[in-house]
């Protein structure tokens, strides 16, 4: 048992303690995003953590939209968040909720606080409130409206609800302690006037609760036991506890904070991503250069690879950054045994086998994945004319170059030995065609041992090749400069974050492949069919990740 306890993270240890001491007799967790943008990799950690805890303890997982701010919320974001969470495998079952469903109860809670003398209507402007608030070292000053009578506060609050005041004219504030060392406890705002149409409640309300007031009430109404959130809410915990206590909820939830997931040299801030989208620098919230969950899915990452990554990151109280290379390591590990290894030529030149019979085609048996026999074989046509990579031929090769050059012999993958006999160039001096001869005795799998070659290159049959567009993605951020420009706070963008290859050639076996299908291109990397722009007659592939990695697993 001791070993088991040690291997648990600190949140699991706290939950075990609460269950052992009878604080709760079950576990209920939730994921409560605001629908004001797309979720990113950091949210994936929170989703999988909350869902995983509910699963581990045989409890319940709730999905709740914290939609208390209609100024920034859209149904597009609601729909994208649902899709992301389902894709990650977190199942909320029948437990899908909206904070706005509880607006009536929140209003009643506010009235209760007024009646208890714990809340008051304040007329200070936002600027005056900032002045009265104090600093980290100096206490704040009490509002001149703090001692209004309960009757007056009830009347004014009702008038706020009835639309008698303009936006910003009045707010409802908690009455706690203007001298508290925790600024969040200095009579925080609970409600503000906002004449806006809400995506869920329409025009029913013109006052809306603040997040710090709404959130604990939502958790309490739903019977959440453990409100798992990130460290920036640690200073808000006393207010969270104050709200559920003063609103007199039974079995109030308990807030526990953990460290956010930070990835090196990536953009996760919604404000920055929104600007990148609006400025046309990326082609939407799911552009494969971003780390929104939708972008990772479109790029070709799998739920399994993201779960592996989150597990490797672990759960702690200490803030730290994780190298993006670790995420790439996880997708390679996930795909390498699952996906077929196909032949694709990104920068094609023609290879003609001069002594191969004209008009003849033979079909070669090609293993889909040499490390996983269960993926079986496919037939690939082979003929006199092929495409090979431009970099697989050199007129004057350096030492240790074992691919094609005049007089040298290589193996064509899954096929025959070929020897380069000549080549052709265009008027600009670029090689266009390489001429070879082949040795029929050397067919792969025939048991030929007469001689060996040092180089093996891949190819695509010219007569059956399908043209494809290939998108090579690099980091959106200039890694040498870091994410943000220190002078003006703008993003240091990498001008070479996307390279589009329009004339790649792929083998015919991709027929029937659809959106999000992924493959290894032999000797090159892992690629995924783009969900937006690919079509059967115009294949578009996104590079998920190259084959090589700089990432090394940490030694135990």
TrEMBL record:
Domain Glutamyl/glutaminyl-tRNA synthetase class Ib anti-codon binding: start-end pairs: 340-439
Motif 'HIGH' region per UniProt: ranges: 33-43
Reaction catalysed by this enzyme: tRNA(Gln) + L-glutamine + ATP = L-glutaminyl-tRNA(Gln) + AMP + diphosphate
Family annotation (PROSITE patterns): AA_TRNA_LIGASE_I
Domain tRNA synthetases class I (E and Q) anti-codon binding: 456-530
GO molecular function, one term: ligase activity
SUPFAM superfamilies: Nucleotidylyl transferase, Ribosomal protein L25-like
Residues that hold L-glutamine according to the record: 66, 211
PANTHER family associated with the record: GLUTAMATE--TRNA LIGASE (PTHR43097:SF5), GLUTAMINE-TRNA LIGASE (PTHR43097)
UniProt xrefs under NCBIfam families: glnS, PRK14703.1
Family: Belongs to the class-I aminoacyl-tRNA synthetase family.
Name this polypeptide is given: Glutamine--tRNA ligase
Gene from which this protein is expressed: glnS
